[in-house]
Amino acid sequence: MRVTPEIPRHLLISVAVLLIAAVLMSSYAWHMRKLVTTTQDTANDTRPLAPPVAGPTERVVLFIAHDEDGSLRPQSAAIPMPSARQERAQELLRALLAIYLDKNSPHVLGSGAEVRSVFLVDPGVAVIDLNSAFADTHRSGVLVEELTVASLIHTISANIPGIVKVKIVVDGKERDTLAGHSDLSSFYDVTAVNQLAAELQSGQ
Length: 204
Prior knowledge:
The radius of gyration is 28 Å and the shape is elongated. The chain has two domains: 8-40; 57-202, no CATH class. By secondary structure, the chain is an alpha+beta fold. The longest helix is centred in the N-terminal third of the chain and has 36 residues, at 9-44. A four-stranded mixed β-sheet has the order 3-4-5-6. Strands 1-2 form a two-stranded antiparallel ribbon. The protein is built from five helices and six strands. It has helices at residues 9-44, 85-100, 132-136, 142-159, 190-202, and strands at 57-66, 71-80, 115-121, 125-130, 165-170, 188-189.
């Protein structure tokens, strides 16, 4: 009869300790990989953090583009509005974009599209600064681009009195067109845009 030699107790304890250490190291390594991935994702997210809006909630009118029938429709909204005209214009357009970036958007914009800022220059000139994602991912087409431009301009001019001309730039720089059609190289006359908006609202 063959007798199996007994494994020393201290050796069993050493093996058990090594196994536990291996499991702990594996868990630690997994945790560190997850932490590094999260950190990289945060570092790669270059979207500016919008400061909290200070101001009472006000009822405003946003002019929403609808792709299914090529129309521009007024929509009432209650949003926090600061007292300064420039900040008011920015919040109006950010509220407008929130609708366009929603999963049920009537006028789809590309992921990451933002209004970086709006500058109001007296007398009566507004400069809308879009980010590159807004323009680079925008769908190309005469009507779809006209709807976007008319929606932006008509929304701020209807809620901020005194704006007569609007310039649209991308990342603070001039751009020839929005996505191949709507001309961004010159100033838009608000009266002409409002006439276009009225036609789009009536379905003409």
